[in-house]
């Protein structure tokens, strides 16, 4: 039996051909369909920026896994976004090694500059602020990940140029 | 088994050079990479297992379980179920731990060689590298390294002309600390929520998809090629105390030269902090330290002579954990430090069992109260009770017992600080650690 979630009726999502092709490739590799579920969610997120209820439903139908199972997985992991995010997701580290070296000030400063709180997105849709625990670069603390890049030895005064740099990457 | 004579004293990091391409196959092979695999393929799997057992290698992920013993529980012989799985746990997310990233980025082939040797030893069929999703460079290097292996007959059918077949897949984690627990990791690979499983059955007998499965840390696998190449007695001779081999140690916090170093097992803690990390930064004094990442008990300067050896650190009521030391300086609030850690573990708890799901958030509430100057003396007693409720044996996995280790030791060593917060109704360290809204929203 498939449990139905409350899905907004006006929103229907069809998986794109590219998404289907990539998910098919995953299914080729796995012994059991459920083994592909996390990677399939990532494929959808790669193409759409986040995983909406409607795209969850579309995936559920396409790979024939219960919607509730997929939703339980999608809501468990930190890097599957169940809300829209901005172009760049900023992950300042809030692990203890960064905090010992002033990480908290860095996070405060980011909030002030972007005028958003943790988990929020700027109005221009450019930045989402989502602190992550220990990013594994503790000897270079404080650190932040953005755009698959690791920014090390952060200082408050270096933040504007980093944000600028990211903004320009977006403009390209 | 015969062994190479030119044995190094820094096996794990000897491949890391100034050359930024030192991680690639040709460079690795030029320095003797895959010699361990070649040597392993000349003898039987059980003979390799004997050598690993003889070496006294203990798991480098934190628990320190003897690797050879762990592996010996995997069913062998013609009746054994297949496929058998070998998994590298590269989901490094322990607060203050960053040693696996170095090995993943700089020596991907060392990990892969260890994994193939492991597969050969236990007659396994499929390997997985379960890697943290945020480790972008490491993922890229592992992916390229795997391709190099397939192109050079180091993976696939009839590896290096032998009868052994083995394939390796990479899984990038969607991010959750609990995925580092081996049965939670297996659930995650099966596409489920990463809740730990009840044991028994142990993964060695019924793990991934119900088949025999081994999960070991990155650094554990890295040791295998060298043990096979240079022999168990060489490996044991590397340690300065009882434990065998070398280990990647690290120090973070207010020290002069934070970093990572490969040193003999049993190197005294004080030597690592003073000689390698350069001692404390000017203007800062050492107040205490966590010897092996965020889920180990605090130790003090009086423990500097203790060797980094699993049992010796255990005698001091802490754990070697990941071997990455986190320094608490005299200007950072110990309550704030413990709060940061408890908050992390509360957030990363999978929510499966009660002491963890309910206990850790409640400990966070009490610590926030104390840090804000709103605490009462009875809160300290309650925190002590919560530590007992989350003790080993009361929980499904090791997350909650580890989570309360810094807290329970801080309540002993830094009790004055907790009481001062309560009596003066504010944080005595306020400026540095906690100047803003406590919830960091």
Name given to the CATH architecture of the largest domain in chain B: 3-Layer(aba) Sandwich
| Most extensive interface, chain pair and sizes | A-B, 47 and 60 residues
Number of strands of chain B: 8
Going by CATH, the homologous superfamily of the largest domain in chain B would be NADH-ubiquinone oxidoreductase 51kDa subunit
Order of helices and strands of chain A: HHHHEHHEEEH
Percent range for β-strand residues of chain A: 5-15%
Structural class of chain A: alpha+beta
Instruction: Spell the H/E element sequence of chain B.
Output: HHHHEHHEHEHEHHEEHEHEHHHHHHH
How much strand of chain B?
5-15%
Give a written overview of the molecule.
The complex is a heterodimer of chains A (172) and B (441). Helix content of chain A is 43%, strand content 8%. Chain A is built from 7 helices and 4 strands; from the N terminus they run ααααβααβββα. Chain A is elongated. Chain B folds into 3 domains: 25-238, 3-Layer(aba) Sandwich (Rossmann fold), CATH 3.40.50.11540; 246-329, Ubiquitin-like (UB roll); 334-433, NADH-ubiquinone oxidoreductase 51kDa subunit, iron-sulphur binding domain (de novo design (two linked rop proteins)), CATH 1.20.1440.230. Chain B has 19 helices and 8 strands. In chain B, the strands form 2 sheets. In chain B, strands 3-2-1-4 form a 4-stranded parallel sheet, with helices on both faces. A 4-stranded mixed sheet of chain B has the order 6-5-8-7, with helices on one face. In chain B, helix 3 (45-55) runs parallel beside helix 10 (232-238) and helix 15 packs antiparallel against helix 16. Chain B is globular and about 75 Å long. Chain B starts with 24 loop residues before the first helix and ends in an 8-residue tail after the last helix. At the A-B interface, helix 2, helix 4, helix 5 and helix 6 of A face strand 3, strand 5, strand 8 and helix 13 of B.
């Amino acid at each position: 039996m498939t449990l139905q979630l409350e899905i907004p009726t006006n929103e229907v999502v069809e998986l794109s051909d590219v998404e289907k092709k990539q998910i098919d490739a995953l299914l080729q590799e796995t012994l059991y369909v459920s083994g592909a579920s996390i990677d399939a969610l990532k494929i959808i997120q790669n193409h759409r920026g986040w995983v909406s209820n409607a795209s969850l439903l579309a995936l559920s139908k396409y790979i024939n896994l219960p919607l509730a199972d997929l939703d339980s997985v999608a809501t468990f992991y930190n890097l599957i976004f169940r809300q829209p995010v901005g172009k760049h997701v900023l992950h300042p580290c809030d692990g203890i090694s960064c905090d010992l070296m002033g990480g908290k000030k860095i996070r405060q400063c980011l909030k002030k500059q972007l005028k958003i709180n943790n988990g929020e997105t700027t109005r221009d849709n450019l930045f989402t602020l989502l602190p992550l625990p220990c990013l594994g670069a503790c000897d270079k603390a404080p650190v932040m990940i953005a755009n698959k890049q690791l920014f090390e030895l952060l200082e408050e005064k270096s933040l504007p140029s980093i944000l600028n740099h990211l903004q320009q990457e977006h403009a390209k | 088994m015969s062994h190479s004579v030119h044995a190094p004293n820094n096996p794990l990091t000897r491949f890391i050079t100034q050359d930024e391409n030192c991680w690639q196959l040709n460079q690795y092979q030029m320095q003797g990479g895959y010699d361990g695999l070649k040597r392993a393929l000349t003898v039987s799997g059980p003979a390799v297992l004997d050598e690993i057992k003889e070496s006294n290698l203990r798991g480098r992920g934190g628990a320190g379980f003897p690797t050879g013993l762990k592996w010996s529980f995997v069913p062998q012989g013609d009746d054994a179920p297949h496929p058998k799985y070998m998994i590298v746990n590269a989901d490094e997310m322990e607060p203050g731990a960053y040693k696996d990233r170095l090995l993943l980025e700089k020596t991907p082939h060392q990990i892969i060689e260890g994994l193939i040797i492991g597969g050969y030893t236990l007659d396994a069929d499929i390997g997985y590298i379960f890697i943290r999703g945020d480790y972008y460079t490491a993922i890229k290097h592992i992916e390229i390294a795997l391709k190099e292996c397939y192109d050079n007959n180091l993976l696939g059918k009839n590896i290096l002309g032998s009868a052994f077949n083995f394939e390796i897949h990479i899984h990038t984690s969607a991010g959750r600390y609990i995925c580092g627990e081996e049965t939670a990791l297996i659930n995650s690979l099966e596409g489920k929520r990463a809740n730990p499983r009840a044991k028994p059955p142990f993964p060695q007998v019924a793990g991934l998809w119900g088949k025999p499965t081994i999960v070991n840390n990155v650094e554990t696998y890295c040791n295998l090629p060298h043990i096979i190449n240079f022999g168990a007695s060489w490996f044991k001779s590397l340690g300065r105390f009882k434990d065998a081999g070398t280990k990647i140690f690290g120090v973070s916090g207010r020290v002069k030269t934070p970093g990572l170093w490969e040193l003999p097992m049993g190197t005294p803690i004080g030597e690592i902090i003073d000689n390698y990390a350069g001692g404390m930064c000017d203007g800062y004094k050492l107040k205490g330290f966590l010897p092996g990442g965020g889920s180990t008990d605090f130790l003090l300067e009086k423990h500097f002579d203790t060797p980094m050896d699993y049992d010796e650190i255990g005698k001091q009521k802490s754990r070697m954990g990941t071997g990455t030391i986190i320094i608490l300086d005299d200007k950072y609030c110990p309550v704030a430090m413990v709060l940061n850690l408890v908050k992390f573990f509360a957030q990363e708890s999978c929510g499966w069992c009660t002491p963890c799901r309910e206990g850790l958030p409640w400990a966070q509430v009490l610590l926030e109260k104390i840090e804000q100057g709103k605490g009462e003396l009875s809160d300290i007693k309650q925190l002590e009770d919560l530590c007992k409720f989350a003790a080993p044996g009361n929980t499904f996995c090791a997350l909650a017992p580890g989570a309360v280790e810094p807290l329970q030791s801080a309540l002993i060593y830094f009790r004055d600080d907790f009481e001062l917060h309560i009596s003066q109704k504010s944080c005595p360290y306020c400026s540095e650690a906690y100047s803003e809204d406590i919830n960091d929203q």
